[in-house]
Amino acid sequence: MKARGRMKKLLMSGLFFACIPYSEGYAATTLYTQDFENPNAGAFVNDSGDVNIFNPINALYGGQPAGFQFAQTFTVETLRIGGTQAWGTGFLDPQARGGNYAISMLSSVQNDLLGLSFNIGTHKYLNFQMDVSSIDLDRWGGPFVASGGVAPVFRFSLFDNPGGGTGVTGGTLLSFADVTGTATALKNTFDWTNHIIALDATGNTNGNVILQIDELQGGYAALDNFVIAASDKPGDVGQVPLPAAAWLFGSGLLGLLALRPSKRG
Q1: What's the distance, CA 195 to chain centroid?
Q2: Which of 89-93, 176-180, 203-207, 252-256 has the lowest mean pLDDT?
Q3: Average pLDDT of the residues in 229-237
Q4: Which candidate, 72, 45, 76, 56, places its Cα nearest to that of 220?
Q5: Between 92 and which of 30, 50, 88, 189 could a Cys-Cys bridge form, CB atoms 3.0 to 4.6 Å apart?
Q6: Distance from C-alpha of 99 to C-alpha of 111, rounded to nearest angstrom
């Protein structure tokens, strides 16, 4: 009777703790997270226009974590957000999702590529969550984005990599996925969209794979906020599952946010 009385009081007050069991496990193995907010000490150099173009990406973010290395073809730039030089305003981020830095690459003039190597073990999928946005340069050969804006399209390809080394490509192409951002005429302003892709690793030799990033169209665009995981469930990047209990306020479930590294405001 006392327990029933306490529950009645909680219900009347509009606040109670509800036990919500979940039956589906989340077995994703996080392989890599990177929000590009912490370039290695002294590595970011503003080569002009709030752009670090001459230092390779490994100079800024290699060894995060220890031993991790990128591979690249041509240049993969690091942009300083919130500076003062680009377009006379600095790069603007009204969504506050890019933080202080983002990486960027070309789809025209030269074919910039970025490669990341992983071992996914016996998992079936390499899942990748990222933010993408069109952006443009006012120097270094730019602008590259056509007047009026062009939606950037990125292709993410997964290659077999039995030797386990770094590279922008490997052996057999296992799978690929394309994502499309939004077109904006504001060349100095990010318009981020978030995407999750599942790359099927079926047929790999020993778990070693290479993830290749290539901008197919758009002229120039940026990427940020990487979360990469291996899983047997497509799209699972390791979000926290619905817990065994959740707070309810009145009759409405406020919701539970999946936790991930992010720079969203």
Answers
A1: 8
A2: 252-256
A3: 97
A4: 76
A5: 189
A6: 26
